Amino acid sequence: MGHTKKVGTSGRFGVRYGRTTRKKIADIEALYRGYHKCTNCNKKRVKRIAFGIWKCYNCDLKFARKAYLFE
Ligand SMILES: [Zn+2]
Questions:
Q1: Which of 1, 19, 39, 65 has the most CB atoms around it within 10 Å of its CB?
Q2: Amino acid 60: pLDDT
Q3: Rounded to the nearest whole angstrom, what is the distance from the C-alpha of residue 60 to the centroid of ligand 1?
C-alpha cells in the first residue's frame, strides 16, 4: 500500500513540473504578444512591430527595447 502511494506521488510531481514549464513559456509569449504600458502616455497600447522595436499606437512613439520584453 505504502509503496503504491509513493509511486503515485512522484508521478504527480512530474506532471506538475511539466505544466509549470509550459505555463512559463505561455507567460513569456503573452508578454511580447500583448499590449504594454507606454512610458510616455501611460496607456496600454505598446506593441512590438519589429525585432527590438516597439510602438505605442496611442501617441505614435517608437521604442528600442529588448527583442521579447518591453521594460
Ligand atoms: Zn504612448
A1: 65
A2: 96
A3: 6
